[in-house]
Amino acid sequence: MTVPGRPNYARYYQASITGQACLPEDREVLMALREASIQPAVPEVENRAFLTRAVAHLAHDEGIRQFLDIGCGHPAWGNVHEVAGRFQSEAVVAYVDCDRDVVDRWRALMPDAGRVVAVERDLRCPRSILDCPEVCSLIDFNEPVGLLLSGVLHLVADEDDPAGIVDTLVDRLSPGSFLVVSQATGDSQDPATVAEVIRIAAKAGVEITMRSREQATRFFRDVDLLEPGLVLAPDWRPARAPTHGPSGWIIGGAGRKP
Question: How much is the pTM?
Fold first, then answer.
């Protein structure tokens, strides 16, 4: 929930991927993070681009027409309903976020009330999402679903059992469904830099749990990973050759439920 005068993760994430102006308290966090982790690429942009490529693959190549986007964040470029709609005219999307302001923004801008819903639920309570009347009115869990957990699992602490949360969600999906995950990692970063990024985020009220590729692989234990596996986000089926190296902060992958 947004607190006046305090940085807000959803707001400064949106600002970082859109380049739009944000509130001074959010700008301060963004500048601190950039200074701590000087990179030619912006991790949040890499994450968003990964999400759009994954959704396009699911809609275009796998024929997925239903998407459950948990931890969706504010509307920006590459929104799931827009990307999926290019390939599946009947695509439906349930956006889920624990931030009331995010949900209110989606509802105010709802592009198609019959094909898109936005609900306030917490990923740490997965059954409340799966049993949500608004979600169930749109998503038919007896048919394949694209479950999207993009840039959200690193906001779930280990003690909240993120792998168990993913298992609960995937268990509800029908065979032929897909899981898409991206996760913050410090695998290729200097430990001091990782610690500083975590400290800055915590000061802004965001607890980030970095995970190694080995740790993040546990999220895919009930699905079959698609090629090229769990990799740095820009290396997952890039549409074109990158103009610079990856930031190294985000890994991502997708898997199919057998």
Answer: 0.88
